[in-house]
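Quick review question:
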């Protein structure tokens, strides 16, 4: 169980790493979010480092993967994937950046799509472990 959860989080983070890299959608994300190299440097100077953000992201991923594991084990892959999709597409959360932060709907859909793909990967890894 623990290995499945940890590997699900690793898969999710590898997808996120590629998604927001320059080889993926990183340039598009930076343009849509208004992020620049200078802003990143300022954030790091204020103590909001990538390591801090990654640590919090890993903890949140462990929580998500644990919930998915329990649900997939109990109710099956279909239920886990459907619920995971709803969690990943939690538009009330994502939409706030479009509505209140003036970031726009393209950014909302880019982030929501990454959440959906990452959560589906988590569910796939967990399901594979449960089949073993």
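Suggested answer, residue by residue:
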């Amino acid at each position: 169980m623990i290995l499945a959860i940890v590997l699900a989080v690793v898969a999710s983070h590898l997808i996120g790493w590629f998604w927001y890299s320059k080889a993926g959608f990183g340039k598009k994300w930076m343009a849509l979010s208004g992020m620049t190299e200078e802003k990143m440097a300022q954030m790091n100077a204020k103590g909001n480092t990538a390591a801090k953000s990654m640590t919090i992201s890993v903890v949140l991923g462990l929580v998500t993967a644990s919930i998915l594991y329990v649900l997939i084990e109990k109710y099956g892959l279909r239920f886990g994937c459907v619920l995971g999709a709803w969690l990943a597409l939690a538009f009330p959360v994502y939409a706030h950046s479009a509505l209140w932060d003036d970031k726009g709907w393209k950014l909302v859909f880019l982030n929501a799509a990454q959440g959906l793909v990452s959560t589906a990967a988590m569910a796939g890894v967990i399901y594979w472990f449960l089949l073993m």
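Why it works: Residues 105-131 form the longest helix (27 residues). The two ends are 11 Å apart (CA to CA).
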